[in-house]
Design brief:
The chain is α/β, with parallel strands linked by helices. The chain has 15 helices and 18 strands. This is Matrilin 4.
Length: about 525
């Protein structure tokens, strides 16, 4: 829990020392809601006077304003009203508490929009005079403070939040500037607030020596602003280089700093970048996309986990993942076919291999899939895939056509049934199995599902939001190698085929005839010898 607690035993009286280090524009925002009892408000009044007595006030020194608030905001005096401590003290002693609600956000809004305007006595931002708000409250705000406090901080106002007794620590943290340990204070009771004031004076007196010039909002640093004595300098995030103007940043690794649009991988070079494709694929003329799986077509069935552990928001990411896979496939009736199965405690075919003829239709269908929830029956899903999804009735092409059959199982947890039998049968039937696991998926089960070599057929991601890298691996492994799974059956009478067919046949024929001819010659020679001997 952040905040400083003050023990009266540890806090002794300290000699009054005025701040000599430089000017401030400081506005005190005082809670005078009905929860602050009259005698408690008197201690708060004394707290203000003690702090002001130790500030070097004047037109060219520190300027002070005071606001009180409850359900409304009342300006006691602005930054331009008084330049003598005695006048300020008199005005503070004449404050009559409002004794209503606690609209702290409204008070911060007032300070930002009115109290720190040049018309009310705040010095222009270009003079780099620190602007400070000290909020003193004893309760929980009845309006929102987080957003308006953030706006005030962004406008260059440094906010100290002082909570007394019943104050809400979360609200104090939401209001205060960072670092919170230097801007959030919780005082146990109003009896201790004057003693706390002695310590807080030192904090205010040190502000000018530690001016955060970055808080003025006009530094123009693209990434980070770092304050130093009498100024500031800009710094870039990791992977970026500060440019000659001292403010702008350019990605050292340009691929990480821009929306490069590379389909597979972006490679940074000095001042530029280029896209590359997986081995075996070529870059298109646009310099960004890669050729699809055109060297061989497949029948692909995706089996996705729709169990309760996935959760709705992650299931949407799973659907995006499926569509990323579809993007690199050459989908057509005679090309690659795609089917989708979802499982939980039961199994449901979302669409079979023969339902959609284009990638666009498949992607639309995927986005319409509704989340099932419930259990994780991965073995049942594998059985369904083998017996139904890869049947000719659902669009799988006959084995005689030599079209590769690929099953991709996506899961996020341990199966509630035995999957080993159906994983084995699927692979024995000629289906190449890929296993993709996320989160609490069990590696042993993924390996059992995956085809050999296992390392090329199973992938894992710790989180649903980081699955993108898996797609790149699948692109390389799912796309058949050149010539594998050729779907075109060519007539040997075609000219081009004949040219290729004849040499192969001649070589094959000559190889197969060599041995019988040699045996025949040996036999003839043996017969000749026998005839010669008889003569």
């Amino acid at each position: 829990r952040l905040g400083l607690y003050f023990d009266p035993v540890l806090l002794g009286a300290a000699p009054a020392v005025k701040c000599k280090t430089g000017p401030l524009d400081i506005v005190f925002v005082i809670d005078s809601s009905r929860s602050v009892r009259p005698f408690e408000f008197e201690t708060m009044r004394r707290f203000l006077i003690d702090i002001i007595q130790n500030l070097e006030v004047g037109p060219n020194a520190t300027r002070v304003g005071v606001i009180q608030y409850s359900s409304q905001v009342q300006n006691i005096f602005s930054l331009k009203t008084f330049f003598k401590r005695a006048d300020m003290e008199k005005a503070i002693n004449s404050i009559v508490p409002l004794a209503q609600g606690t609209m702290t956000g409204l008070a911060i809004q007032y300070a930002m929009n009115l109290a720190f305007t040049v018309q009310e006595g705040a010095r222009p931002l270009h003079k780099k005079i620190p602007r400070v708000v000290v909020i003193v409250t004893d309760g929980r705000p009845q309006d929102r403070v987080t957003e308006v406090a953030a706006q005030a901080r962004d406008a260059g106002i440094e906010i100290y939040a002082v909570g007394v007794q019943r104050a809400d620590m979360n609200s104090l943290r939401a209001m205060a500037s960072h670092p919170l340990e230097e801007h959030v204070f919780l005082v146990e009771s109003f009896d201790l607030i004057q003693q706390f004031g002695i310590q807080f004076q030192d904090k205010l007196c040190a502000i000018d020596a530690l001016i955060n010039y970055c808080n003025f909002g006009n530094h123009s640093c693209q990434h980070k602003c770092l304050s130093i004595p009498n100024g500031y300098y800009c710094r870039c995030n990791d992977g970026f280089t500060l440019q000659a103007d001292g403010k702008a940043c350019q990605a050292s690794d340009i691929c990480n700093g821009i929306d490069h649009g590379c389909e597979f991988k972006c490679v940074s070079t000095v001042g530029s970048y280029h896209c590359i494709c997986p081995e075996g694929q070529q870059l298109h003329a646009d310099g960004k996309t890669c050729n699809k799986c055109k060297s061989g077509h497949v029948d692909l069935v995706l089996v996705i986990d729709g169990s309760k552990s996935v959760r709705p928001q992650n299931f949407e990411l799973v659907k995006q993942f499926v569509n990323q896979i579809v993007d690199f496939l050459d989908v057509s009736p005679h090309g690659t076919r795609v089917g989708l199965v979802q499982y939980s405690s039961r199994v449901r075919t979302e669409f079979p291999l023969n339902q959609y003829k284009t990638a666009e239709d498949i992607k639309k269908a995927v986005l319409r899939v509704e989340y099932m929830e419930k259990g994780t029956m991965t073995g049942l899903a594998l059985k369904h895939m083998l017996e139904h999804s890869f049947s000719e009735a659902e669009g799988a092409r006959p084995l005689s056509q030599n079209i590769p059959r690929i099953g991709l199982v996506f899961t996020d947890g341990r199966s509630q049934d035995d999957l080993s039998e159906w994983a084995r049968k699927a692979k024995e039937s000629g289906i190449t199995m890929f296993a993709v696991g996320v989160g609490k998926a069990v590696e042993e089960e993924l390996r059992e599902i995956a085809s050999e070599p296992v390392e090329q057929h199973f992938s894992y991601s710790a989180d649903f939001s980081t699955m993108t890298h898996i797609v790149d691996n699948l692109k390389v492994n799912i796309c058949p190698e050149e010539g594998k799974g050729e779907t075109e059956i060519r007539s040997p009478c075609e000219c081009e085929a004949l040219v290729q067919f004849q040499p192969r046949c001649l070589v094959s024929a000559s190889t197969s005839l060599t041995r019988p001819l040699a045996q025949m010659m040996a036999r003839l020679e043996d017969l000749e010898n026998q005839i010669a001997n008889k003569k």
